[in-house]
Amino acid sequence: MSQAPPPRDRLMLVGTRNAVGLARLHTADVLSRWGVHPDSIETVKLLVSELTTNAVRCLNMGQEESPPYSEHNTTQTFELALEITNGAIRASVWDRDSRPPILKQVGVDATGGRGLFIVAAMSRRWGSYPVCGLPGKVVWAEVPLVLVTHGRADISSDSPRLLQPARAVRPTRDAQVRPDL
């Protein structure tokens, strides 16, 4: 008997202000249909929020907002992918910016720059890679897969922890830690 492929879902979004909220709503809907535990859904929604915020910022860097139906509108798209793989839920965001993500050390008074720190702290693993044949990169993060069965949480046998964020920052070879200048 053949085994069904792992669940996957993709959503193309336009890099506008409401894209982050739409990505969170989509994530909650998809993961709840897959039977993922509500606590895990909340963690993945946070990761998706940070990853999509970075994508929207990269897409709109240095651009003034134009009316949506204007011929001067240069708004671009990015893609959110959700999948269950190897005992984890993976959220990936592809954008057209080829620069690798940089994990910054920010001061306590900084008003931004903590997104990748949150991703690193709340995920089991995270990283990025360039996209072959297309412009840009994919930034991804994984959390342990926890399913709801018979009213209780069951953790995947491949996952060592239940609902605990990672304790150490583990950037991939592409990610760098730099002080915020």
Automatic annotation (TrEMBL):
<keyword id="KW-0067">ATP-binding</keyword>
<protein>
    <submittedName>
        <fullName>ATP-binding protein</fullName>
    </submittedName>
</protein>
<keyword id="KW-0723">Serine/threonine-protein kinase</keyword>
<dbReference type="InterPro" id="IPR036890">
    <property type="entry name" value="HATPase_C_sf"/>
</dbReference>
<keyword id="KW-0418">Kinase</keyword>
<dbReference type="GO" id="GO:0004674">
    <property type="term" value="F:protein serine/threonine kinase activity"/>
</dbReference>
<dbReference type="GO" id="GO:0005524">
    <property type="term" value="F:ATP binding"/>
</dbReference>
<dbReference type="InterPro" id="IPR003594">
    <property type="entry name" value="HATPase_dom"/>
</dbReference>
<keyword id="KW-0808">Transferase</keyword>
<keyword id="KW-0547">Nucleotide-binding</keyword>
<dbReference type="Pfam" id="PF13581">
    <property type="entry name" value="HATPase_c_2"/>
</dbReference>
<dbReference type="InterPro" id="IPR050267">
    <property type="entry name" value="Anti-sigma-factor_SerPK"/>
</dbReference>
<feature type="domain" description="Histidine kinase/HSP90-like ATPase">
    <location>
        <begin position="19"/>
        <end position="126"/>
    </location>
</feature>
